[in-house]
Amino acid sequence: MNESQRQAYGETLVKLGSDRRIVVLDADLSSSTHTIMFQRAYPDRFFNMGIQEQNMVGVAAGLAMSGKIPFASSFAVFVVGRAYDVIRQSIAYTNANVKIVATHGGITVGEDGATHQMLEDLGIMCGLPNFRVIAPADAQETRRVIENIAYVDGPFYVRLSREKVPTILVDEVFDIGKGIVIREGDDITLISTGIVLSRVIEAAETLAKNGISASVIHMPTLKPIDKDIIVKYAIRTGRIITVEEHTVFNGLGSRVAEVLSENHPTRLSRIGINDVFGESGPGWELLEKYGISAKNISEKAISMVRS
Amino acid sequence: MNIEIRDLMLRANEIRRLAIDMIYNAQSGHPGGSLSSADILSALYFKVLRVDPKNPLWEERDRFVLSKGHASAAYYAALALRGFFPLEDLKTFRKIGSMLQGHPTIHVPGVDMTTGSLGQGFSNSLGMALSAKIDKKDYLVYVLLGDGECNEGIVWEAALSAAHNNLDNIIAILDRNMYQLDGATEKILSLEPLQDKFRAFGWNVFNVDGHNIEEILNAIDMAKRRNGKPNMIIARTIKGKGVSFMENTHEFHGKAPNKEQYERAIKELDEIEHKIKGADPNE
Lengths: 307, 283
Hints:
The complex is a heterodimer of chains A (307) and B (283). By secondary structure, chain A is an alpha/beta fold. Chain A is 40% helix and 21% strand. In chain A, the strands form three sheets. Chain A has a seven-stranded mixed beta sheet with strand order 3-2-4-5-7-6-12, sandwiched between helices. A five-stranded mixed beta sheet of chain A has the order 9-11-10-13-14, with helices on both faces. In chain A, strand 13 (239-247), helix 11 and strand 14 (267-273) form a beta-alpha-beta unit. The longest helix of chain A has 13 residues, at 53-65. By secondary structure, chain B is α/β, with parallel strands linked by helices. Chain B has one domain (3-278): Thiamin diphosphate (ThDP)-binding fold, Pyr/PP domains (Rossmann fold). Helices cover 43% and strands 12% of the residues of chain B. In chain B, a hairpin with a 2-residue loop joins strand 4 (179-180) and strand 5 (183-184). The N and C termini of chain B lie close together (6 Å). The relative contact order of chain B is 0.17. Chain A binds chain B through residues 20, 23, 44-45, 47, 49-50, 52, 54-55, 57-68, 70, 85-86, 88-90, 93-94, and chain B through 59, 63, 105-106, 112-117, 119-120, 122-132, 134-135, 153-154, 157-158, 160-161, 164-165.
């Protein structure tokens, strides 16, 4: 079943909305981010700021300073890209209780093209002290993430997808900073973040048919990263592939590489966007074209295991 | 000049002297914009703001955001004089381990928002004002802007947004000292006609002499009438006010005085104090 993370986000906001501290801001994309659902339920605590990402984030910080729990949303490329300095000074430095939930992360934005495909947000946000950074795999996990972070003080960045994604994590518990073991295997470990999990599981199934047993770990939290699980599976399988809908720089692959080089040097291959911009086209097809595919993952795994 | 105004003028002069002390002591900081905003800060902290130094996070307090965060020296001096923390702490300004960072942070008692990156404090003040509206609280949000700061796009985003959201609980004061770091504001990036701009954006605009405390107080009283529009008090000031060689120049925007300049500055400020004290309060 394919479900929308954005819709799950909107529904969860409405659920949280009975708490009068919850306020929601959007920058003229509320029907796309689905914060419009909150607007319909709680119009007095919803603010459509217009196309002003900087001001939206600055206002969110001021609301947090006055005891509110603001959720501020836009597309990833705009809320991170255009408002970065405001996020840095007004939210990260002050440790403000603002939750930035960006939709339309990654290349699966599709037809709108490179101008709208944010490929470096996870790295940018991980660089900010106090921020915790989360990329849920599906709609079900999105619900748990939003409910969870609403009541954890301090800033969060959550990246959601435009596309509907296969539901996988029906009842897995979400804990901030904890990886989730999806599948156990001894030959290689596949670690992914965000919506590419379905592709990774597909790859693991292909590998099983080829006699290779792969562990699959979903890493919803990029920061703080779950060092223990990375090291544990590095020791167990001796080979790791990371998969992310993000530039290979500064994202999951880089974070895993840092953990491995400092704790347990291990053969690593990173799959992601290779330092290029995207282009227009159907989202899932673009993911294939840019190498974030079950086929590419399984081929890389086979060559790592057999070399 | 009544006794209250004379007292506020003396406070302003004390803010100036402390700010120069701090900047000289740190050998860094922003004298020009600290001196230009001293009378405004004096009026706010010793007359206008509903704050309690013993309870800096009091929920019903008026908020104040120094959006032109580089005037931190004057701000810290005002807060210390108002009793938020000991005057002694001012000696640590801009030193390692000090709570008095180069630009204000919320870790300082009395500081409602961390600022320094221009324009953001203005935007933050809207969030505080919106929050008051949601909770039906009657506190006011004061925000002090620089004129050079108005080069920033976010200032105009916030100006649109405050009017759209009818944030008449915002009283913004613009320290119109005519200079920014690199030179005269009208040479770097023209702001005029500034009051027309804010009016067109939907603000009440008040023009005052930013060194005339009575005018500042009167404008604030008018702004408190709450007519559905946000309020902008454009305070015409002199950059470096009170120290002759720092006045009307960008040279001391962000430069500390040397020993000789420091001594001369303090001497001039002492003379001003003498003059204020000597003035007939009933005149």
